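On clarity, I found the account of how folds are encoded harder to follow than it need be. Since the whole study asks how a given chain folds, the encoding of that fold should be made plain. For illustration, here is how one protein appears when written out as sequence plus structure tokens:
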Amino acid sequence: MTGLSASFAVALRPAPVHCPADYEPMEGLLIAWEAFPSVLTDLTVGVTTGDPSATVWVVVDDWAEKTVVHGALSSAGAVMDQVQFIYYFADTVWIRDYGPRFICEDGIRAIVDWPYYAIRPNDDAFNDYLSTLWDEAEYDIPVRNDGGNFQLFSNGEAYATSFILDENSSLTEQEVIDHYHDYHNVELTIYSRFSFCVHIDMWMLPVGDGEVIINEYPPELEGPYTVTEDAAADFVARGYTVYRTPAWLPSYDHYTYTNAVILNHQVFVPYFNSSHDSEALAVFQQAFPDHEVSQIYCGSIINSGGAIHCVVMHVPPCEPRPPIALDDEVSTPANSPITIALRATDDGLPEPPMLEFIITLLPEHGALTQVEHLRGILFFSRCRWVLAGS
């Protein structure tokens, strides 16, 4: 038979370890109250008033600072029932760089911790503290990298700039890639960096499956222009929809809109009181038609080399994930039987399921006979199947 075409109600299983992308469902955000209180306040108010299911965990030095921060947030209109405080003496506000990169390990949340700057010892030790506080497993990846130099999609494609190679001169590029696969279950692509910008979240933002926003620089900024145009072309070649937002560099400040925060149905975008603000907002509204898009003023924080994505770390729920389908196509000469494996797996949560295939289109020639075995499946060796409409 030839031309078998089938689509299934089930799919290829997510891997036992899944590193969630920012745009996947989240419980909330971690922030550290060490600088830029107006930015942190605006974020907290926006999150808690716009998403009744979201939590903002605020890292404060002690009870005295908690009292001050609690009063400031409450006065600004934050929903304080959705704010929780963690007592810890952090060194800096940049929790994206040193905070926990969460993974879901067989549906259980765990922490991947990478080495941070020795001159910021409290930041470097934060994940150890949080692992104990929240009773979550922690794995120390032997790769030095900042969290802002790591962006990924739910399909396991991940990206960083070559700054990660600069920071790990004792490792080969392949060893870095292999470590990220081992600890995060991602396939890491490393793009070139440009001199003043080493973190990829300053010029690239995953929007959703198959969609990305990338900065667009004027051609006279040769380094940034070349790097981002090459990256945009690469994403197009991979089949992604690529949106572009303006970026510019007066003196040493790097003005960018991609350092934004996605949280469930909300998107928070920097603005700078610039003529480009409305253009960037329109791009985000196009890229996120089903989200509430709002702007947060970042005119001060951007002078320190970051914006709002740099000061948050996403906290995923690690709930059971649905099966994901694996398409297949086979052919065979006339009058030559062929065995077709209907392949699907699942994460087994909340318990190993009995999945059912639905064959929606019969082969153009020949006939199907009973499926006897399902090959390469984690939880079962036989499958049920039906024809659509019968």
Observations:
- Helices lie at 37-50, 63-76, 95-98, 121-134, 163-166, 173-184, 222-237, 277-287.
